[in-house]
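Hi Prof. W.,

I finally got the HK97 family phage prohead protease prediction working! I wasn't sure whether to trim anything, so I left the full sequence exactly as given:
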Amino acid sequence: MAAVTLERRAFAEIRASGRRIEGYAATFGAVAQIGSITETIAPGAFRSTLAGDVVALLDHDAGKVLGRTRSGTLRLSEDSKGLAFSLDLPDTQAGRDVLALAERNDLGGMSFGFMVPKGGEAWNGERRTLLAVDLHEISVVSAWPAYPDTSLALRGRVTPQAERRRRAIILAGVNHAIR
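And this is what came out:
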């Protein structure tokens, strides 16, 4: 029996303002090219795993925790577009780094770490569809996402200065796998 490994996928839609970032950690129907495999995520793939404790990390680094569902600093939901998130950034070095990079539009996007339960995928040749996943973490990524259609934004009190700083990061067409 082969060992089950944690998989990671990334997305590139992020909105930022204030000390909160929000957007989509995964989107349904978006295509990722993972080596020779083409992968998509089916609607409902996250539904059964949202009740668990999921952490938010910086670049999949367990030493850079940004929040978690158990404490209420990370909120996750699944809607018709994908896996939506809202994350209150901590006043830590990692949190301040994410805030600064989000304000400058320098973040690459979002990613998620998961395992596929038995029956959670469907294959058609080299095409894989994720039907269900066991979500372990979402990550703010500094570089390139595997999926092109995610989002992240910074949210907070809207002031004239904050409104001028607010930017949407939408990296359409970026299609690189995290290695």
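The helical segments are 93-103, 160-165. Does that look reasonable to you?

Thanks,
D.
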